[in-house]
């Protein structure tokens, strides 16, 4: 029995199994069509298996699966259903992604927080995790007093530790914390009023 | 690179490829090539003057048939494991011939152990049969590994373990052809511990020998 993809029932030339057979024979258009058709299926499978992933992580995993499919496309037998073949690769790659993440996490040590006092730490952007307009941020930083600019540059841009920043600038750790805290408050105010 | 871009790059790389034959066909091809290799090694040893045992004894024949059946079913199972969407239950297929093989050796093994523990036999002798039997197992092992690397490394541990079992079974066939026929401690160790050891080693080495990383690098290298 031929297996049809959910989006292309009734259309023989869009049958996933048929497209894969054409792809194996070197038909690039059929291959591109197949990969585009399976992308939503794979995205859905990833989201079901790993609902906590961010959109860019889902995309990374999706791309891993697409490359895996490409690498082992010779193993597909057109006489057999396509979806079990596809989903076996997808499941394997999702598990592989998890293992790779665990290996990476095991090798990495968590970075020390810039500040030991919670109040001195900068909160992540509350809207979407980005700084929005980089030009506006640059402009807002330029309006800060020199000591605050220096503190932001060393601790936030160059990601130096407090000790390194204190050694480089000659400022005390307490002064750096205060300068950064004030700078962040000023920046947040400036950027929010602009928005 | 966004996903659309990747799809375009992958599709542009879609040269015609040769589909992998059915796992059973591949296993038969492997066994045929391996048997040819085994026959060649046997022929060389005969030329060199080593005795080759081809006994018509019933237990010997059952044991050898079970050994070949173990090699064949393990190879089929290994080739199935690298095809996405196929059931992994096939990995249990070698258990039956393996059980027959072990049972056929059972009597000899029990007798050997009794003799060994009563001090009736020494743990020496017959080591000279190890190099030819290792040589016999080496060719099929390399061949099956190369063939397995053409598939999807979904379950590298069990796949390589099954491949190692298949090659080790043929290695044992070689041992029985080169060995003088009497049961010694060396033979017991070689036939049981070596098969178990090689299978376990295959399982341990699996992720290194079959890895997605290698396939991905191949794809990226082409792209």
Give a quick rundown of the structure:
With 195 residues, chain A is mainly α. Chain A is built from eight helices and no strands.
Features:
heterodimer; A: 195 residues; mainly alpha; Rna Polymerase Sigma Factor, Chain: A; Arc Repressor Mutant, subunit A; 2 domains; elongated; B: elongated
Describe the overall structure.
- The complex is a heterodimer of chains A (195) and B (223).
- Chain A has 195 residues and is an all-alpha fold.
- Helices cover 64% and strands 0% of the residues of chain A.
- Chain A has helices at residues 16-24, 28-49, 55-71, 82-107, 134-142, 146-157, 162-169, 173-194.
- Chain A is elongated.
- Chain B has 223 residues and is mostly helical.
- Chain B has one domain (23-222).
- Chain B is 72% helix and 0% strand.
- Chain B contains eight helices and no strands.
- Chain B has helices at 3-12, 23-47, 58-81, 95-117, 130-148, 156-178, 185-209, 212-222.
- In chain B, helix 6 packs antiparallel against helix 7.
- Chain B is elongated, with a radius of gyration of 20 Å.
- The two termini of chain B are 13 Å apart.
- The A-B interface holds A 23-29, 31-32, 35-36, 39, 59, 62-64, 66-68, 70-78, 80-81, 84-89, 92-93, 96 and B 1-3, 6-8, 10-20, 22, 82-85, 150-152, 154, 212, 215-216, 218-220.
CATH superfamily of the largest domain in chain A: RNA polymerase sigma factor, region 2, helix turn helix motif
CATH architecture of the largest domain in chain A: Orthogonal Bundle
Largest sheet of chain B: none
State the CATH class of the largest domain in chain A. Mainly Alpha
Radius of gyration of chain B using CA atoms only: 20 Å
β-sheet strand percentage of chain B: under 5%
Which series of helices and strands of chain A comes N to C? HHHHHHHH
Instruction: Please estimate the helix content of chain B.
Output: over 70%
- Between the first and last Cα atoms of chain A, what is the distance in angstroms? 58 Å
Order of helices and strands of chain B: HHHHHHHH
What distance separates the N and C termini of chain B? 13 Å
- In terms of DSSP E residues, the strand content of chain A is under 5%
Tell me the helix content of chain A. Answer: 55-70%
Catalogue the unreliable spans of chain B.
none
Tell me the total number of β-strands of chain B: 0
Mean pLDDT of chain A: 78
- In CATH terms, what is the fold-level topology of the largest domain in chain A? Rna Polymerase Sigma Factor, Chain: A
Class by SSE composition of chain B: mainly alpha
């Amino acid at each position: 029995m031929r297996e049809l993809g959910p989006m292309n029932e009734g259309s023989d030339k869009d049958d996933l199994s048929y497209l894969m057979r054409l792809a194996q024979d070197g038909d690039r258009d059929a291959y591109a069509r197949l990969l585009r058709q399976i992308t939503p299926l794979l995205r859905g499978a990833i989201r079901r298996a790993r609902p906590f992933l961010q959109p860019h992580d889902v995309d990374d995993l999706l791309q891993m699966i697409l490359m895996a499919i490409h690498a082992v496309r010779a193993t597909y037998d057109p006489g057999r259903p396509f979806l079990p073949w596809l989903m076996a690769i997808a499941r394997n790659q999702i598990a592989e992604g998890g293992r790779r993440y665990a290996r990476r996490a095991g090798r990495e040590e968590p970075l020390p927080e810039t500040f030991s006092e919670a109040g001195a730490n900068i909160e992540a952007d509350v809207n979407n995790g980005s700084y929005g307009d980089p030009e506006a941020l640059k402009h807002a930083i330029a309006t800060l007093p020199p000591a605050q600019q220096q503190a932001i540059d060393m601790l936030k841009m160059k990601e130096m530790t407090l000790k390194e920043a204190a050694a480089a600038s000659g400022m005390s750790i307490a002064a750096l914390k205060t300068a950064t805290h004030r700078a962040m408050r000023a920046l947040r105010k400036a950027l929010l009023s602009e928005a | 690179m966004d996903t659309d871009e990747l799809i375009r790059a992958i599709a542009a790389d879609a040269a015609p490829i040769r589909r992998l034959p059915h796992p059973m066909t591949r296993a038969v091809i492997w066994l045929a090539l391996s048997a040819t290799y085994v026959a060649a090694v046997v022929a060389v040893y005969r030329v060199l003057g080593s005795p080759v045992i081809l006994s018509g004894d019933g237990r010997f024949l059952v044991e050898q048939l079970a050994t070949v059946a173990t090699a064949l079913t393990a190879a089929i199972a290994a080739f199935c494991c690298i095809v996405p969407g196929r059931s992994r239950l096939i990995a249990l297929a070698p258990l039956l011939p393996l059980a027959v093989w072990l049972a056929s050796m059972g009597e000899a093994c029990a007798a050997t152990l009794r003799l060994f523990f009563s001090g009736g036999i020494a743990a020496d002798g017959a080591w000279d049969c190890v190099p030819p039997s290792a040589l016999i197992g080496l060719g099929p092992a390399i061949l099956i590994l190369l063939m397995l690397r053409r598939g999807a490394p979904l379950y590298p541990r069990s796949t390589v373990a099954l491949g190692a079992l298949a090659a080790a079974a043929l290695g044992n066939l070689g041992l029985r052809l080169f060995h003088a026929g009497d049961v010694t401690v060396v033979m017991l160790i070689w036939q049981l511990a070596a098969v178990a050891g090689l299978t376990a080693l295959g399982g341990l080495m699996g992720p290194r020998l079959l890895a997605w990383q290698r396939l991905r690098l191949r794809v990226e290298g082409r792209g």
